Structures are given as structure tokens and as C-alpha cells.
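Data availability (excerpt). The following record was deposited with the supplementary files.
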Amino acid sequence: MNLISSLPLSEYGFVFEINPDNLGITIDYHITDWYINENYYLEKSIVYNSVSIFALIDNVEYIKYNFSGKTYEVKRENVENNFPNYKDIVKDGINKKAFNKYLEQKVSDIEFIEQCFNSFVSE
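Predicted structure:
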């Protein structure tokens, strides 16, 4: 819960459920106007949150992000295979320097975010 509380989108309020059988997390955000997406905030947040959760929690295999009327799903395998330099981020635990270089600094690059979002997020 502390991890999700510290990630983008948490400011809208949320509840989450852990599925121990399928090793997944479902996060229901309290956003009624999910389509409000200034500066690609939703895409940036889903990419950032997914990489962060998978990097920090080894046994999560998927994440479902539920918004009013819209659901996005991200699978660990897709992030591991499609997020550039993911292996550098999770090398020897979590590599903070690599995390900053390959995620923190790239999150403002709209082209990069669109590429990542389209490659590992399904609706």
C-alpha cells in the first residue's frame, strides 16, 4: 500500500486488491473523469507505476488499472521484454542510478512514453 500511495495517480484516491492465486494487483482509482489527460499524465503514470511496481515487487505478474469506464492491464513479461533497459534498472535489486536515468528522466519524453505504453499496456 505504501508503494502505491507514493506513485502518480494516488492523489485521486484508490483501493486495491491483491490476487494471490494469479499474483496480480488490481487498483481501482477514484477518478470519475479518467479521460482528462493533460500532457499524457495517464500514460506517463501507468508506464512509471508499472515499471516501479514490477521492479520493486518480485512476485507480481500483472497489474490492472481500473478507472471509471476504462481498464488497462500490464503484464510483467511485457514490461521485461519491451521496456528499454529494464534489466539495468533491476540489476542487483534496484539500481537507483539506472532507475533515474532510464525511467525518471525519460518520463517527460512523450514519444518514449507512447512507445512504451503501446508496447506493453493492453485495454
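Summary of structural features: The first helix runs from residue 2 to 5.
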